[in-house]
Task: inverse folding
């Protein structure tokens, strides 16, 4: 069984699986994309944001 | 009437170019097959002469002129005579390298915190900050505990209670910054008739934005020779007209920063302007982060749709149509 057949058999054949894959994929992409962009943003702005200076002022 | 006239004029003017172009094309193609069902130069001529093109171009021209006029206040290429002097407009501020000016840069939150201190200790004596509540400071420049303590130091009027009376209570996180004066009249009376404007949106409300407010705070000087400044007014070249009711308020060492930053005039001005920039645009940091996401997503989607378009059209663009004449079978 070639790869494309395997992919077709597992994800595309049944509509219920296909739709669930799309939804789960969108969710996973959303989370991952946000994590990636945030990681870049925090590195670019290292030391400037509140989370970088918060430890100086918070008393637990 | 006008559109008829100029449509005719346009046609006459346009007829020179395309004819030459079409003879060129047809000569190079003469003898070979005709490729398309439409004649491209005729199509161009149709397009150039159409009413819609004319209306579109006129609208575009009128729109550009209106936009220019709105942006710069004058018509393009039309000279003007001023009775006033350029100093009436105020000096243009220099453009300063703010830590938040880049398209990917957040505010410098340590600077916002120092700027709040400057606002509280200096500017709050005259200027209100109506649109900022104590809770807005939480997670930006102060912890929730700090903000709560600062709010509790202020008495707010609340009510009416069960007896229908107003009462005083200590502030809560949800309360807005207390104004220095109860109303505009009191504010004017306290400042020789001039109203200290609310500072919540001042950075958005002035040409030059942060650069202007910084230059204003640091730009006080003696009036140049020949410039008369009334009693109680102060000379500041950045203020339109030059004479401002607010005296210079920032002097070296006026406040003492808790993080040990030397409180020079320009440092305090920078910090308070950063604070005011945040107050005018609290969504700034989030907005830029969404901008990164939007640019990445939309450019990928654009590339994907361009690819799909080419993919779908390949078979149409690359096909060849053969004509096999019917064979005469009678012989």
Result:
């Amino acid at each position: 069984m070639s790869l494309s057949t395997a992919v077709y058999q597992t994800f595309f054949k049944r509509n219920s699986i296909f739709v669930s894959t799309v939804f789960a994929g969108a969710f996973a992409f959303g989370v991952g994309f946000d994590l990636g962009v945030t990681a870049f943003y925090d590195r670019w702005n290292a030391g400037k944001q509140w989370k970088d200076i918060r430890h100086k002022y918070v008393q637990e | 009437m006008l559109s008829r006239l100029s449509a005719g004029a346009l046609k006459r003017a346009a007829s020179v170019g395309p004819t030459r172009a079409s003879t060129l094309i047809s000569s190079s193609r003469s003898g070979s097959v005709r490729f398309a069902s439409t004649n491209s130069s005729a199509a161009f001529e149709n397009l150039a002469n159409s009413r819609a093109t004319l209306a579109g171009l006129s609208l575009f021209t009128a729109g550009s002129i209106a936009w220019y006029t709105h942006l710069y206040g004058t018509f393009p290429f039309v000279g003007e005579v001023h009775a006033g002097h350029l100093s009436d407009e105020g000096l243009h501020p220099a453009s300063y390298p703010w830590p938040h000016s880049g398209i990917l840069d957040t505010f410098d939150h340590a600077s916002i915190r120092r700027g709040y201190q400057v606002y509280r200790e200096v500017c709050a004596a005259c200027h209100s900050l109506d649109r900022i509540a104590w809770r807005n400071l939480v997670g930006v420049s102060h912890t929730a505990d700090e903000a709560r303590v600062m709010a509790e130091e202020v008495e707010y009027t609340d009510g009416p209670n069960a007896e229908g009376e107003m009462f005083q209570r200590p502030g809560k996180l949800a309360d807005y910054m207390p104004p220095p004066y109860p109303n505009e009249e009191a504010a004017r009376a306290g400042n020789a008739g001039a109203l200290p404007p609310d500072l919540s949106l001042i950075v958005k409300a002035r040409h030059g934005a942060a650069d202007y407010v910084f230059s204003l705070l640091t730009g006080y000087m003696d009036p140049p020779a020949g410039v008369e400044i009334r009693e109680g007014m102060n000379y500041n070249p950045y203020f339109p007209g030059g004479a401002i009711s607010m005296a210079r308020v920032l002097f070296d060492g006026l406040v003492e920063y808790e993080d040990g930053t030397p409180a020079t005039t320009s440092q305090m001005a920078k910090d308070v302007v950063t604070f005011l920039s945040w107050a005018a645009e609290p969504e700034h940091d989030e907005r830029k982060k969404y901008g990164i996401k939007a640019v990445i997503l939309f450019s990928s989607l654009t590339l994907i749709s361009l690819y799909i378009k080419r993919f779908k059209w390949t078979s149409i663009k690359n096909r060849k149509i053969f004509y096999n004449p019917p064979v005469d079978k009678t012989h």
User: Anything to note?
Assistant: The mean pLDDT of chain A is 95. The interface with chain B takes residues 33-34, 37-38, 40-41, 44-45, 48-50, 52-54, 56-59 of chain A (CB under 8 Å). The domain at 3-57 of chain A is CATH 1.20.5.260 (Single alpha-helices involved in coiled-coils or other helix-helix interfaces).
